[in-house]
């Protein structure tokens, strides 16, 4: 179990720099999009479904984008698995702020948990045409 730190801004920066360096990261090949379904008809889980969420009106799943183009927005996806007992509190805001400052765009993040691989993991999506630049920013952060 990880307890969330109480720290100065400088300590937070140093801790999150370590977190990004130590996390297992992966770039998911291809383009991804969201498919939407009515709330009363949840979609089937498939082997290529990365995430599924819902609100009061609909279900939404993140899957490989259709090859025919379709009308859904397309995203590049990368992910992080964090080592066991790592305090990654604040990581999403920290990295999202850096990506926004460097790329001028926002991101979306879907989090989950897999205790067999350290606990919390994140799937990050950014506009497809900015994926290579986002990966470059992350590589720079990991190397710092």
Percent helix range: 25-40%
* Distinct helical segment count: 3
Strand order of the largest sheet: 2-3-1-4-6-5
Oligomer type:
single chain
Q: What is the arithmetic mean of pLDDT?
A: 92
Number of strands: 6
Shape: globular
Structural commentary:
The protein has 144 residues and is α+β, with helices and mostly antiparallel strands. Helix content is 28%, strand content 34%. It is built from 3 helices and 6 strands, in the order αββββαββα. Strands 2-3-1-4-6-5 form a 6-stranded antiparallel beta sheet. α1 (9-22) crosses α3. The protein is globular, with a radius of gyration of 16 Å. The chain starts with 8 loop residues before the first helix and ends with a helix. 17% of the residues are buried. The model has no long low-confidence stretch (mean pLDDT 92).
Provide the descriptors you would attach to this structure in a database record.
144 residues; alpha+beta; six-stranded antiparallel β-sheet; 3 helices; 6 strands; 28% helix; globular
Could you give the topology of this structure?
Elements: H1 9-22, E1 24-38, E2 51-54, E3 58-64, E4 75-81, H2 91-103, E5 108-114, E6 119-127, H3 131-143
Antiparallel strand pairs: 1-3, 1-4, 2-3, 4-6, 5-6
Helix pairs in contact: 1-3, 2-3
Quick rundown:
The protein is α+β, with helices and mostly antiparallel strands.
């Amino acid at each position: 179990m990880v307890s969330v730190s109480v720290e100065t801004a400088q300590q937070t920066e140093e801790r999150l720099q370590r977190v990004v360096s130590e996390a297992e990261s992966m770039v998911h090949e291809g383009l991804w999009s969201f498919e939407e379904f009515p709330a009363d008809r949840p979609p089937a889980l498939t082997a290529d479904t990365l995430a599924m969420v819902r609100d009061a009106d609909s279900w939404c799943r993140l899957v490989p984008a259709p090859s025919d183009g379709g009308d859904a927005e397309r995203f590049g996806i990368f992910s992080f698995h964090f080592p066991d007992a790592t305090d990654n509190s604040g990581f999403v805001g920290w990295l999202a702020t850096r990506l926004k400052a460097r790329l001028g765009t926002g991101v979306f993040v879907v989090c989950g948990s897999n205790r067999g691989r350290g606990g919390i993991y994140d799937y990050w999506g950014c506009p497809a045409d900015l994926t290579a630049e986002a990966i470059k920013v992350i590589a720079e952060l990991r190397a710092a």
